[in-house]
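All the exercises in this workshop are built on plain-text protein records. An example says more than a description, so a record of this kind follows:
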Amino acid sequence: MATKAVHVSDVPNLDHVPENAASLSLYATRRPTGVDVSKNGKSFPKFTVIGHRGHGMNILQSTDRRMKAFKENSILSFNNAAKHPIDYIEFDVQGTVFEKRATDLTINEFFSYGPQREAGKEGKSLVRKVNGKIVGWDVESDDHLCTLQEAFQKVNPCIGFNIELKFDDNVVYEQDHLIHVLQVIMKVVSENAKDRPIIFSSFQPDAALLMKKLQHRYPVYFLTNGGNEVYDDVRRNSLEEAKKLALEGRLDGIVSEVKAIFRNPSVVREIKGSNLSLLTYGKLNNFSETVHVQQLMGVDGVIVDLVEEITRAIGETKTRKGSDDEKREKTDEEDGRGIELSFLLNLISQVIQH
């Protein structure tokens, strides 16, 4: 997804961004009081389900048709996800930058790929690199690419947006450039969001910190794979570093690869005890059992690919829990919950190790 091209001089004052915004400090020592994320604050009122890239990320090499049902990051995918009881859709946004990578195309180059808006016109073929091989981006229901502004205008207004601020892992960005891109994105959001709930997130530590500096209306989360990969930037290499960054930068929470919290379940309590919200992403979130475990652990929400299946499973769990509450005494239920969580965590830990 691309943003609408806007010159920096056209960007309005975002929470009184100073003229020397490029020199903003990336760290702070105080944290604001948490508020409800359903009204663009920090804590979630219920277990939250977020559709990954809309109805789910496309896994083109998969034999599972569900992973190729709708073109990811498209209006079609977003609105099909909205047919299910989810709270947000997650999608990637990037500004206009320089090199000819997937994340670096100009707006005209971006729209030249895939299905075209004009009837009878064919676009350039979209491909994806999978395990070193180039494969065609073939899905059952295709759609043309879209801008962030179009998403606001055409997607069900009841669905929140989890906007991932996308940057290249292999590029070291100048702070001025990050600020420019974030201001362009924020201009589109401020002009179109209205009452739609918004969350910002990014794997790029400085982008997350700067977005929190540039505005205070919407929550900002730091994305981390929790140590599953190692980067030159140590802030990206563990949940401990992620928590430190979030606290020092006054961020609202962390989005972690789910395996990281299963390897170290106590980190959930540590993060929540620091007044941070915790979401997870990853392939394990496509199994209802692992999602249920996270509910028991106190995780605030999950980003999932199998939107229909996971929302249905969560609904069934709520129904069973309501029935069980009528049959059990509170102490018995708490004992059972503790046994269930311990057993499931041990099982998942063994699965991850093997």
